[in-house]
Specification:
single chain; 121 residues; alpha+beta; Tetrahydropterin Synthase, Chain A; elongated
Length: 121
């Protein structure tokens, strides 16, 4: 199995709901997010790639136009704008265009990340 990944970056604000009132994440705050898309394939294409990294520019374009410097609560309502939900939202957005996509990872801080990877059948 061949695997590749590529990172993308954006900054955005959000506030989480359903937490205790004194939880700091209930207040509007921001993160410098890192999104990593993970692709895999049993075979390489004619050029010797899982997928040409240049073809992943659709991810950058989406992130830049839809997520960067936005309030994620406005974009994701009624879902909570957790890293887990962001990862699934991005997976669902790109899976049709990138069939090799098997997981999306979203990091809010250097020490934390959430990964969405659907169960294999």
């Amino acid at each position: 199995m061949f695997k590749i990944s590529k990172e993308f970056y954006f900054s955005a604000a959000h506030a989480l709901f359903g937490l205790p009132d004194d939880h700091p994440c209930t207040r509007l705050h921001g993160h410098n997010y890192v999104v990593t898309v993970h692709l895999k394939s049993k075979e390489l294409n004619q050029q010797g790639f899982v997928r040409d990294y240049h073809e992943l520019n659709i991810v950058k374009e989406y992130i830049d136009s839809k997520l960067d410097h936005r309030n994620l609560n406005d974009i994701m309502a009624p879902l909570n704008s957790s890293a887990e939900n962001i990862a699934k939202m991005l997976y669902d957005a790109f899976k049709p265009s990138l069939p090799e996509l098997y997981a999306v990872e979203v990091s809010e801080t250097p020490k934390t990340s959430a990964i969405y990877e659907p169960e294999c059948k």
